[in-house]
Amino acid sequence: MKIIMVCASLALAIGPMVIAPANAKGCVKGAIVGGAAGHVAGHHGAVGAIAGCAIGHHQANKHQDTEQNH
Fold it and tell me: What SS3 class is residue 53?
């Protein structure tokens, strides 16, 4: 069951990069950190990876907007 969850979370994290590489900035780094944190917090690595991807993507966009405004 773990293998299926790991493969599913990787597919969700890597899938958007294949389709639209410009929009996936920050996703992989966030997915790795979130997956590790979720695994340690209660063996919920897939949920952590998905949340980490979303947060990493948001932070990358925020950083990009800040750089463009200065």
Answer: helix
Task: Output the CA–CA distances (angstroms, integers) from residue 39 to 16, 21, 26, 33, 60, in the order listed.
Answer: 23, 27, 20, 10, 24
Which residues constitute the domain of residue 26?
2-69
Per-residue pLDDT of the chain (70 residues; tens, 9 = 90+): 677 777 677 677 666 555 555 556 788 888 888 888 888 888 888 888 888 888 888 888 888 888 887 7
Indicate the pTM of the whole model: 0.58
Domain total for the chain? 1
